[in-house]
């Protein structure tokens, strides 16, 4: 009989996170988080999915909100935590505002660290897996320097955590490539004609689920993997 896993997905109100929750919801118990107040997200998310507000602009507050939601729903263990929420702001050299830099680091990096520490006992109890969502942009993304810095720092954090948690909780870093979500528009950036090459959101969510199921870290999920690894798209979390 198929086992229903307990899965946390952050940033589940749009884009890849929402597509991932829609894939997982019928087979697993899902707790979704986002910055949007309760009401609207529940209309977007499949029935049965739990939703809690966890605005990652305030890392400790977000981590406490998630801990409260786990308690409230009597979740004492987590099989998978997928830390997917992310934000980016496009800005030329020297034009990034302090507020945008701080928001990028708070949402992408500091909340990831705060959540990892909060979730450790839940994941350990299940022998579970923490998956962090980075980006291929970490290596070089003109006009997105702070975003790239946040994703590089996440990568190194995951590398250290893999050693710290070895034998207790698996830690995985995934780096998606360009995907057709609203992230660029929200960031104030027009990718122009290149958007035609972006991977569809649902396909990225499928690649992500397959990669999470397979484990291993770090992994890039981009064009090469998409065109060469179509056969793994059907692999699902069990
Ligand atoms: N799209 C790409 O090309 C691409 C490429 C590589 C990596 N990624 C990464 O993939 C992940 C998902 O991105 P996406 O493309 O799906 O972007 P998206 O469509 O903008 O979704 C991002 C999610 O994070 C949430 N979020 C943003 N700020 C937040 C905050 N302060 N507190 C809590 N949640 C917040 C968003 O909430 P709202 O719905 O309220 O906006 C949304 O649910 C991100 O980590 C991103 O860096 C994306």
Automatic annotation (TrEMBL):
<keyword id="KW-0560">Oxidoreductase</keyword>
<dbReference type="Pfam" id="PF00106">
    <property type="entry name" value="adh_short"/>
</dbReference>
<dbReference type="GO" id="GO:0050664">
    <property type="term" value="F:oxidoreductase activity, acting on NAD(P)H, oxygen as acceptor"/>
</dbReference>
<dbReference type="InterPro" id="IPR036291">
    <property type="entry name" value="NAD(P)-bd_dom_sf"/>
</dbReference>
<comment type="similarity">
    <text>Belongs to the short-chain dehydrogenases/reductases (SDR) family.</text>
</comment>
<protein>
    <submittedName>
        <fullName>SDR family NAD(P)-dependent oxidoreductase</fullName>
    </submittedName>
</protein>
<dbReference type="InterPro" id="IPR002347">
    <property type="entry name" value="SDR_fam"/>
</dbReference>
